[in-house]
Amino acid sequence: MIDATRLGFDPFLGWPVLWIVVALAALAWLGYLFLRGKAWATRGLALTLLAAALSNPSLVQEEREPLPSVAAVILDRSESMEFGDRETAASAAYANLKAQLDADPSLEVRVLESDPGDDGTHLYGALEGLMADVPRDRIAGAIFITDGQIHDLPKPEDDDRHIGPLHGLIVGNPNRGDRRVTIVDAPDFGIVGETANLVIRVDDPEGDDVDVTVSVNGEMTERLRITPGENTSLPIEIERRGENVIVVETPPGRQELTLANNRTATTLSGVRDRLRVLLVTGKPNQAGRVWRDLLKSDPSVDLVHFTILRPPYKTDYTPTEELALIAFPTEELFEDKLKEFDLIIFDQYERRGVITQSYLANMARYVADGGALLIAAGEPFAGPGSLARSPLASVLPAAPTGNVYTGNFTPELTEAGKRHTVTLPLEGRKWGGWMRYIEATAKAGDVLMSGPEGKPLLIVDRVDKGRVGMLMSDQIWLWARGHDGGGPFAELIRRVVHWMMKEPELEERKLSLVAEGDTARVELRTLLDTAPPLTIETPEGSLMEPEWREQAPGQFVAEAPIDQLGLYRAEAGGLEAVALNGPANPKEYADLQSTTEVLSPLARETGGNVFRLNEAGTNLPEIRRVGNRGSASGGNWLGLRERGAYAVRSSSSQPLLPGLLAAIGLVALLLLAWRREGK
């Protein structure tokens, strides 16, 4: 304990009122002086005595307990500290520094390690939380042990109450560089079938041109060579509605701290503007009207309906000008603007010379290039005018046998249909019967529904970039009319069309990956009974091979522990999936070079300094205790302030100007003033 004496004041009227009284008295005294009053000195003494009496001075004797100053030490445990010898050097410096500070009994040391799971290095926020309950007049200073990459430092000029003096001990080799790729700008969504501009940037200490590969939804779309340090605009074609994952990669450079930032990704939501459909009806029929009504009922569908009323070779003496207002634009539809359609539907079409063989060859190329074709077969499909006897046969998954089955039968789901996403929700429902079936043999694709004797009824297939569906009956309109209880006509057709439009939720062979926290979860949807081997590539390039666990027929799941931020990639049976653990461009990997430049401005503003440590972390600067003012650092030393704070344990006071004594003195001075003025 320390005994101390001080002069104390406890105004009777409170300080604001006292200062108002003093100001008024001073103005009155100045006025008196201006009017040449004779007792100006006496009256001044009287007013001074009055002010002193009102301030209630006293002599205070205190018993004080000295309080230690508080210093903070923050150790950077972010992911960037794992590269090279940074973590070893930081741990050694941390232990040595703490031992030195603990040896000072006048100093309270608070220590904290940053959260390694944060997106970025947040040391200043950790410091503020650690010292939140410490009065500013007890803070001796703070020391950061880090690689210098700190992401939450305030600007030195923003606030003059920064915690300080702030010092930095920087670990890591400043001469080691790292190649990294970042996505500078990416749109949130775009129109399916159109392009969106992605802006990327590669930074490389070598400065040479760098190869970059870009993949969309697991398929490589472009390889280009760009100049490091420059923003490069990259057009990306949006393939499908929903989430599109875009991955940008660069190969390892000559200088690398990590490969985790050589790959980055972003997600872009595809929005379908309008679904453009071309419906070709071979002849007027009940199914054609149902098809037309279904497509027209959807406001997002732009429909072009082409019905062949009579073949060109039919004898008809009706004048041409009375048959149509304009000639049908076959060349424009089937050659010039064919690729503008998202889906082509042939309903009971028979080759009669209206659509030429060259136009049908164009359609086959259209499918291979990514288009969609749906065949609703009728009796003509089994005859010589069948589309299966045209250039379109190269993309069809089934071929007619020439037989037409007439008689009641009920469509049924096949084993593949019970697993396929198109027909899976339809299992267990009761359906009405159909009356006609065009017998066919499946050559490719997946048979989802069967007709009489288990023969293929609904077949879907992928052809190069496009997709094809075939319905081997012209009787689906019976479901729409409610015959024999009806059936899921609209739901089935919509799901088939959406599958052909490559809707992600309807992919029957799909690998999905979710990486969150400390677990990577992979789900596989397949039509097979067994799952192919699975590999997961980490951001650093290492491989994991977790085992599958079957959840349901054709559905498998696997999990693996993870401990890194960044992009993970899963592969199984030719399918790929990517997922981000954390943000698309983690701050922690944005710049991995050890630096003193980030922390130096704030350190200088608070009176501190930044020191670089050696590979072993043993060359600590000398630690000194300094006063409350001036610089707290030098070339090879850092200072922690000695605040001299204390707590008062007991106190007593003795009034210096009792009221009676003040009143007697005031009266005496006033009488003396009146006497001088009366002479």
Fold topology:
Elements: E1 2-9, H1 15-34, H2 40-55, E2 57-66, E3 69-75, H3 86-102, E4 107-113, H4 123-130, E5 139-146, E6 166-170, E7 180-185, E8 189-191, E9 195-203, E10 210-216, E11 219-226, E12 231-237, E13 242-249, E14 263-271, E15 275-281, H5 286-296, E16 301-307, H6 320-323, H7 330-336, E17 343-347, H8 357-368, E18 372-376, E19 398-409, E20 412-413, E21 434-442, E22 446-450, E23 456-463, E24 466-471, H9 477-481, H10 489-500, E25 510-516, E26 519-525, E27 534-537, E28 543-544, E29 549-552, E30 555-561, E31 566-572, E32 575-581, H11 600-605, E33 610-612, E34 622-626, E35 637-641, E36 646-655, H12 659-678
Helix pairs in contact: 1-2, 2-12
Organism: Hyphomonas pacifica
InterPro entries: Class_I_gatase-like
Protein name: Glutamine amidotransferase domain-containing protein
Summarize the structure.
With 679 residues, the chain is of the alpha/beta class.
Task: Report on the architecture of this protein.
It comes from Hyphomonas pacifica. This is Glutamine amidotransferase domain-containing protein. By secondary structure, this protein is of the alpha/beta class. It contains twelve helices and 36 strands. The protein folds into five domains: 2-65 and 650-676, no CATH class; 68-174 and 598-644, 3-Layer(aba) Sandwich (Rossmann fold); 180-272, Immunoglobulin-like (Sandwich), CATH 2.60.40.2950; 275-502, 3-Layer(aba) Sandwich (Rossmann fold), CATH 3.40.50; 510-581, Immunoglobulins (Immunoglobulin-like), CATH 2.60.40. A hairpin with a 2-residue loop joins strand 29 (549-552) and strand 30. Helix 1 packs antiparallel against helix 2. The longest helix is centred in the first third of the chain and has 20 residues, at 15-34. It starts with a strand and ends with a helix.
